[in-house]
Amino acid sequence: MTRADATAAVRNPLAFIAARWTPDPRTVQRAALAALVMSVVIVVTGGAVRLTGSGLGCPTWPKCTEDSLHNTAEMGIHGYIEFGNRMLTYVLCAAVGWAIVAARAQKPYRRDVVRLGWAQFWVVMSNAVLGGIVVLVGLNPYTVAAHFLLSTVLIAVATLMWQRTREGDGAPRPLVGKSVQQLVWFLVAATVLLIAVGTVVTGAGPHAGDSSEVERMPLDWENVSKLHAVLAWIVVTLTFALWFVLKAVDAPQGPLARTRELFLVLLAQGALGYIQYFTELPEVLVGAHMFGSCLVWIATLRVLLSLRERPETEPPGLPAQQPDATSPSMAGPR
């Protein structure tokens, strides 16, 4: 590498890499999928921190203690769990960074895909700061809820980026009518409300995230849980109605398949929710329910994104393709 190359790499490393490497489309897709998977993993491990009572395993932030960047042996298992979850944030950053690099190096350059990668990066940074605030305010339930909701934003952006890497840059073409699209938007809104109320259930429930006295939301936990169950049934009903409408209008297979997947995920998540409720919220089932909420959100977004298609665009300046001499139009009477 020459001195000029080194200078260019320092000034704009992404452009330097893009000038020397063109990833296969599958590589870009896998990078986007890795970022999505890690965005779910960080939610599940964050739930494990809470459910094991390790939320204040590192009692301050950005250090783990006043005198140490990392946990110490005296802090016990809770310190290892909390500090381990913090370290996973760097793995998430690496996955998002890999997605950004792969998207930036792809040819032709796709600005919206790169911007989605950067959007993930800034959401991760924002949520890291918010996670620090959660620790500094002693696991205030409202900040914990905001921390989880920002993670759902990250999952949404990651899902959209993964979808964009698997389709072209042509103008989106709707596959269903406006009435079906409106029904899906109602479904998305109901799912958002379902997830938001789920954070209230957690904030008012018994799993405070630490063994010490932690503030809870001043709400009746069982009443909020019942509201959460009603919203879940609304989402299930909307999903079943959507599948019925799609079948009635003879919709393409894509929206039908995504709707069927969402319905199955909702049934599994609902069954898990009732089991954990009637078994007094065992930690393992609560953690599985958090993982299920991520899957419900991803499946809902995939239904929304399946309502349109984006074909590949033709590169500009290419001559029109000439018909082959052996084609039926050139071969005389058939």
General description of the model:
This protein has 334 residues and is mainly α. Helices cover 68% and strands 1% of the residues. The protein is built from ten helices and two strands; from the N terminus they run ααααααβααααβ. Strands 1-2 form a two-stranded antiparallel ribbon. It is flat, with a radius of gyration of 24 Å.
Name the descriptors.
334 residues, mainly alpha, two-stranded antiparallel sheet, 10 helices, 68% helix, flat
Topology:
Layout: H1 3-11, H2 13-18, H3 25-51, H4 76-105, H5 111-136, H6 141-164, E1 173-174, H7 178-204, H8 221-248, H9 253-278, H10 283-305, E2 308-309
Antiparallel strand pairs: 1-2
Helix pairs in contact: 3-4, 3-6, 3-10, 4-5, 5-6, 6-7, 6-10, 7-8, 7-10, 8-9, 9-10
The succession of helices and strands, N to C, reads HHHHHHEHHHHE
Strand order in the sheet with the most strands: 1-2
CA-to-CA gap between the ends? 62 Å
Shape: flat
